[in-house]
Prior knowledge:
alpha+beta; 3 helices; globular; transferase; glutathione transferase activity; DUF952
Amino acid sequence: MTVLHIAYATDWEAAQHTGEYRISTRGRTLEQEGFIHCSATRAQARTVTELFYADVTEPLLLLEIDPTGLDIRYEVPEGAHEAFPHLYGPLPTSSVSAVYEHNTR
């Protein structure tokens, strides 16, 4: 089982230098949000992209995360009708098993 996270390419590149990714969602850090927003499926990631990233013009990536050893909790966000995985704590870059280009169109 994997989980997915939408990331700006620049944020992921910066994480390569520190070994940790600490961005929760568009414009918010792990410290500000308390967790990192993730998606359970590509369909969930597409929905999130359509709702929150449709106007983004800079490159986006879809990070495929191996959840082994990570504090991931499935929760239903306010206004949602299904559970989404949330990562409580930083994402070690070593837990990312694949990186895909992810566009808003």
